[in-house]
């Protein structure tokens, strides 16, 4: 792990770091990732589930339904003309 | 006592212990059959929900989490939302954007995390149950530090609808209480299928009958690295179990030592994607500068409002998902999860539960926590992480006290969907265990 990688990852994750923070996280992540090398000693396994139990797709009936009033959902959101307000795209 | 007086007393207690981030102002008795609290990552329509994060300040959900909804339906009154590590990221509830709960037995010590406020409320308030959420040990750890009973059920047993996700493949909602019997009683209410959470739809019926625990297996790996006092209290507790007719065997479970790194890779990978939604739009703080380009706007809000540990886990999870590293470690972590599950299944074929101390030490002082590195703190989870990675139900019971009077817990892990044997051992244990409640003054 090096500071440049930490800054690249932070940019990707939309987090800005000061020089001091980048150094500190670099050391922390370096220590943590070194410890994770322990996994190299772990036995292999053919199975790689996403969930710890078997999960099936359970779909509800394909009938339109409105669970929540849109105005209620929007009440605490910063909106303009019932659209959620956001930053510039370009 | 009127509801008004009860809430007034609880507010005074909260000044000392800081278990609640938000408390209800509704003094209407509304025929409440019981009072309960819930971890602040469970949405509640009458109280702000922040999950311990300043980025969600001001978020007022318009729906209840399924577990809160069910408790209200049977006459429960939600009195408060409990303090926690930000989004569940911690072992001591000290990584909060808000108040840090204080241990009921010694306020200079932590409650454990991340459901620390819930464990504190369950310990301090008479006849109270609190909903907690466990991703890597966040129910059993604080239950152990605060001297209460706590259960994290099988993954998928309780609907996660309305839970603010940390790691979707790991999060489980459970119950903490001073009374063992409450775990069975209230889990019965919150368990069950819910089509709003597909992972809850495959569960078998919830067996609520008594099922005596006849045998436990103690893995060698679960008794390494303990403090002297925890080791000694645990040994005594094992002797008591034997005297109760529980057969005790000692086994090897070599996979357990790989669970911690596998857990942190999977949990932070999932967390970093879940937290991508918090960008200063729709929930919480939304006062960013809209003249900025979206990348800069998102970065400004996230940098300002995420705490130190949230940033660390986002960075770690983002990195582990990146090409190169991801192929090497993420896939391996998924394999290790299966290896751990297989190891539990092997041992649980001949035993009712796997047993070990819940935590390797008793509740540490805040001064000592501040000196721990991030890795030290992650390593402290090595006893609670394996069952969480495997999605197996696990329960912590108070089993003794150290020389400072701090509680020690022991953790039973049962096979998937076999919660009933855990409830039964907790109830049997309670009959012969002398629970020392903390002295609570208003």
Account of the 3D structure:
The complex is a heterodimer of chains A (90) and B (442). Chain A has 90 residues and is mainly alpha-helical. Chain A has helices at residues 3-12, 19-36, 70-74, and strands spanning 79-80, 83-84. Chain A has a domain at 3-41. In chain A, strands 1-2 form a two-stranded antiparallel ribbon. In chain A, strand 1 (79-80) and strand 2 form a beta hairpin. In chain A, helix 1 (3-12) crosses helix 2 (19-36). The radius of gyration of chain A is 23 Å and the shape is flat. The mean pLDDT of chain A is 92. Chain B has 442 residues and is α/β, with parallel strands linked by helices. Chain B has a single domain (3-257, 333-432), classed as Amidase signature (AS) enzymes, CATH 3.90.1300. Chain B has 14 helices and 13 strands. Chain B has helices spanning 3-17, 66-73, 116-124, 140-146, 180-190, 228-243, 256-274, 294-305, 308-321, 325-348, 366-370, 374-379, 385-390, 419-432, and strands at 20-23, 34-39, 76-82, 102-103, 106-110, 128-134, 149-152, 172-177, 215-219, 247-251, 353-357, 394-401, 407-413. In chain B, the strands form two sheets. Chain B has an eleven-stranded mixed sheet with strand order 1-3-2-6-8-7-12-13-11-9-10, with helices on both faces. Chain B has a two-stranded antiparallel ribbon with strand order 4-5. Chain B is globular. Chains A and B meet through helix 1 and helix 2 of A and helix 7, helix 8, helix 9, helix 10 and helix 12 of B.
User: What is the strand tally of chain B?
Assistant: 13
The assigned structural class of chain B equals: alpha/beta
Order of helices and strands of chain A: HHHEE
Question: What class would the helix/strand composition of chain A place it in?
Answer: mainly alpha
The largest pleated sheet of chain A is described as: 2 strands, antiparallel
> Count of helices of chain A?
3
What proportion of the residues of chain A is helical, as a percent range?
Answer: 25-40%
CATH domain topology of chain B:
Amidase signature (AS) enzymes
Identify the CATH class of chain B.
Answer: Alpha Beta
Low-confidence stretches of chain B: none
Strand content of chain B: 15-25%
What is the straight-line distance between the termini of chain A?
33 Å
Q: What's the average pLDDT of chain B?
A: 96
CATH architecture label of chain B: Alpha-Beta Complex
Based on DSSP secondary structure assignment, what is the total number of beta strands of chain A? 2
Distance between the termini of chain B: 15 Å
The profile of the biggest β sheet of chain B is: 11 strands, mixed
